[in-house]
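Hi everyone, sorry if this is the wrong subforum. Our group has a chain we'd like a structural model of before ordering constructs, and none of us has done structure prediction before. Sequence below.
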Amino acid sequence: MTDQLLVTIGILLIVAGLILASVSIILLSQRAGNSRGRGGAVIVIGPFPIVLGSDKEAARSLLLLAVIFVVTLIALFLLQIV
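Answer:
Right subforum, don't worry. Here is the predicted structure as tokens:
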């Protein structure tokens, strides 16, 4: 594959992700009921994940995903696959 094709595919995937996120936010905001939203974020600085969550369960789930992500990245770095 040429570099230009890979760049084009990457940009299309980013745009598709943004469109999908926007559509899901619009659909979820129109849902009726008094549901409380849950959410969180993970900020990875080097090998250290910083987890922010709206409740303990969301933070725990994000922490597990962040640890799996960091371990995978370290393993790929050590194997020189990246």
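For your construct planning: Residues 40-82 form one domain. Strands lie at 40-45, 48-53.
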